């Protein structure tokens, strides 16, 4: 898919289909995270993929447990990376996923001590991935239309010259 169309049509999705995501797609998502830049290329992260049992326990550590419980797979970004670096890494993974029709959502962490104990390190974010319950074809609109429909502040509001 065109990069801008992928960006413009991506929405954080919380209703998931009960359909597995194959190993190749999972690996491409993880590789997109691996490829993210980071401060001085420090890469101070690990990508923790919980088993079904650990995923169920991890669900209890976030504000919206169903987002994690019902996901086809989950990636916790763990380590000492800065917020900026974690954001780059997470968005790479989510856009790579959406490029192949896999939806995603970041999860706010309610109990970081428990999440850290499950994942074996400081959990910076927990990402849920799955095919969406209601499939959405990005190509049904052009990128400009997706952009115009997005629930975001306008560029007029965000951009200023100095
Ligand atoms: C740091 C962070 C934490 C978030 N935590 C949650 C969460 O706990 N539960 C949830 O349903 N969505 C969570 N989200 C998703 C936001 O609600 C979402 O990014 C925003 O509403 C835009 O959604 P859209 O892309 O579908 O318009 C989180 C997003 C971020 C960046």
For the structure shown, list the relevant keywords:
162 residues, alpha+beta, NADH Oxidase, 4-stranded antiparallel beta sheet, binds flavin mononucleotide
Give an account of the 3D structure:
- With 162 residues, the chain is an alpha+beta fold.
- The chain has one domain: NADH Oxidase, CATH 3.40.109.
- 42% of the residues lie in helices and 15% in strands.
- It has 8 helices and 4 strands, in the order H-H-E-H-H-E-H-E-H-E-H-H.
- The chain has a 4-stranded antiparallel beta sheet with strand order 1-2-4-3, sandwiched between helices.
- Helix 1 (3-9) packs parallel to helix 7 and helix 2 (23-34) runs antiparallel to helix 5 (83-99).
- The longest helix has 17 residues, at 83-99.
- The radius of gyration is 16 Å and the shape is globular.
**Helix content, binned percent:** 40-55%
Cofactors and ligands: flavin mononucleotide
Which structural class is indicated by helix and strand composition? alpha+beta
| CATH architecture field | 3-Layer(aba) Sandwich
Strand and helix map with partners:
Elements: H1 3-9, H2 23-34, E1 45-48, H3 52-59, H4 65-69, E2 73-79, H5 83-99, E3 103-107, H6 112-119, E4 123-130, H7 143-149, H8 155-158
Antiparallel strand pairs: 1-2, 2-4, 3-4
The structure holds flavin mononucleotide.
Residues 11-12, 14, 62-64, 67, 105-108, 151 line the site of flavin mononucleotide.
Give a brief description.
The protein is of the alpha+beta class and 162 residues long.
């Amino acid at each position: 898919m065109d990069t801008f169309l992928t960006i413009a049509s991506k929405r954080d999705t919380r209703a998931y289909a009960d359909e597995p995501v194959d190993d190749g797609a999972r690996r491409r998502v993880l590789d997109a995270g691996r490829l993210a830049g980071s401060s001085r290329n420090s890469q101070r992260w690990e990508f923790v993929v919980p088993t079904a049992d650990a995923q169920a326990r991890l669900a209890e550590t976030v504000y919206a447990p169903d987002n994690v419980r019902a996901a086809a797979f989950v990636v916790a970004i763990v380590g000492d990376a800065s917020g900026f670096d974690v954001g780059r890494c997470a968005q790479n993974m989510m856009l790579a996923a959406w490029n192949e029709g896999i939806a995603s959502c970041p999860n706010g962490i309610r109990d970081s001590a428990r999440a850290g104990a499950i994942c074996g390190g400081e959990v910076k974010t927990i990402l849920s991935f799955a095919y969406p319950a209601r499939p959405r074809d990005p190509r049904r609109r052009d990128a400009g239309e997706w952009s115009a429909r997005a629930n975001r502040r306008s560029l007029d509001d965000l951009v200023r010259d100095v």
